[in-house]
Amino acid sequence: MSTLDSLALTRIPPEDEALRAEVRTFLAEAIAGLPAHIRARSWGGYSTELSRKLGAKGWIGVTLPPAYGGGGRSAFTRYVLVEEYLACGAPVGSHWIADRQSAPLILKYGTEAQKQFYIPRVCRGEAFFCIGMSEPGSGSDLASVRTRATPNDTGFVLNGQKIWTTNAHHCQYMIALVRTSGTAEDRHKGLSQVIVDLSLPGVTVRPIEDLSGDSHFCEVFFDNVQLGPDALIGAEGQGWEQVTAELAFERSGPERLFSSIVLFDQWLQYVRTPQGRTESAQRLAGKVLTQLAPLRAMSVAIQDKLVRGQSPIVEAALVKELGTTLEQMIPAAIADDLFACEAEDVPVELLMTLKYVTEASPSFSLRGGTRDILRGMIARGLGLR
Ligand SMILES: Cc1cc2nc3c(=O)[nH]c(=O)nc-3n(C[C@H](O)[C@H](O)[C@H](O)COP(=O)(O)OP(=O)(O)OC[C@H]3O[C@@H](n4cnc5c(N)ncnc54)[C@H](O)[C@@H]3O)c2cc1C
Fold first, then answer.
1. Among 3, 126, 328, 358, which is least packed by CB within 10 angstroms?
2. Residue nearest to atom 24 of ligand 1 (CA)
3. Positions of the chain with pLDDT under 50
4. Which element (helix H / strand E) includes 302?
């Protein structure tokens, strides 16, 4: 291999790129009429109807084996789909977690019965999952979780509380990180993952309202919830290893770059008008695009590493940290630009989108691991601590 070859950027294979046009056309019709300030919610937006339509197209679980209803295609196919969903702000939140991590997790660690029961329904856009990791007092310090699944004659009895659980009020299932043995002081030891049917007696789900007025995440309480023996996913006591592997996939995808992209596009439309085409706006547009392009290239390169079975945990942390910094810069810089020059005839829809993204943006560097935690991981990966 020549030096030039080794420097070549990872590219999405042409057979996957070929899917873009069809997805774009489909989405243009499927979400026609949805205003930008709603589309700005994107993977936080929720539409079971859209999920079912995408399932019918074969675009959920696209990397999963056809034997379980999946598409049998590569992770790059999924990358193209996700980029297109995010670029137009399709409300894909209902199946998001199930597609990104729950079904792949079940495929990797689940029993044959679990695979057959859950995965085909995920692929049809009918079974939705949420992630039960965080608890009050156990967010960054995840290994200290206290929710406990105590083994008994008929499976496990679940007691405890999860918090910030995205879409718990809309999902049928949660994959929860729980303690099955030992105490919180045992840290990583004694943790397991269980699938919780959220309709079981003893489960209470309470939505939490965020700064923007949306209620997309919840508190979830477990009071003597009886789980069957088949609730355990993977090996008992292996929960920590399973969760860590999940997080590398969660941190490097396009969703860590494109959370403000609907706003950016909406603003660019204004910048193309005579009133909006100021010198400072054009400079800002260039600044955003020159940061976005290399970050996207890094995200695609990490995808390639994941496809090759590597575990690019530090690289994924770096993409998330840089990506969310850019995502948060976009609404702040657009607001500065619009208001500093007392811009004229700014469309109301642009202002409503700006308002929503400004209110949502603090959460970009909290969800999926906070900025401080990621910086600590990067420093450790570089051998600096
Ligand atoms: C929009 C959104 C959606 C979410 N969805 C989910 C979900 O679906 N499922 C789920 O399980 N969780 C979810 N979360 C929770 C999220 O993962 C946690 O909020 C996050 O891990 C931080 O945990 P915490 O809130 O307990 O804060 P803490 O861990 O208490 O942190 C508070 C502050 O202290 C800093 N800090 C903590 N420890 C250290 C350290 N060692 N070094 C330096 N600084 C430190 C943090 O960076 C942060 O600024 C979501 C959060 C948000 C905002």
1. 3
2. 139
3. 1
4. helix 279-307
Output the pLDDT for position 10: 84
Domains and CATH numbers, the chain: 3-127 (1.10.540.10), 131-238 (2.40.110.10), 250-381 (1.20.140.10)
pLDDT of residue 131: 96
Q: What is the pTM of this model?
A: 0.95
DSSP label of 274: T
Q: Are 129 and 171 in contact (CB under 8 A)?
A: yes
73 Cα: distance to centroid of ligand 1 (angstroms): 33
User: What DSSP string describes 351-374?
Assistant: HHHHHHHHHHGGGGGTTTS-HHHH
The set of protein residues with a Cβ atom below 6 angstroms from ligand 1 is 130-134, 139-140, 164-166, 217, 363, 366-367, 369-370, 372-373, 376
Across 78-138, the runs of DSSP E, i.e. the strands, are 129-132
Q: pLDDT (tens digit, 9 = 90+) per residue, 193-225?
A: 999 999 999 999 999 999 989 999 999 999 999
The secondary structure of 2-39 as a DSSP string is -HHHHHPPP---HHHHTTHHHHHHHHHHHTTT--HHHH
Element containing residue 233 per DSSP (H, E): strand 232-233
Q: pLDDT digits over 343-384, tens only?
A: 778 999 999 999 999 999 999 999 989 999 999 999 999 999
**3 state DSSP class of 350:** helix
Active-site residue, selected from the candidate residues 84, 250, 255, 327: 250
**CA 303, chain centre distance (Å):** 15
Closest among 121, 148, 145 to 135, alpha carbons compared: 145
User: At 208, phi and psi to the nearest 5?
Assistant: -115, 135
For this structure, is 241 an active site residue? no
Cβ(201)–Cβ(225) below 8 Å = yes
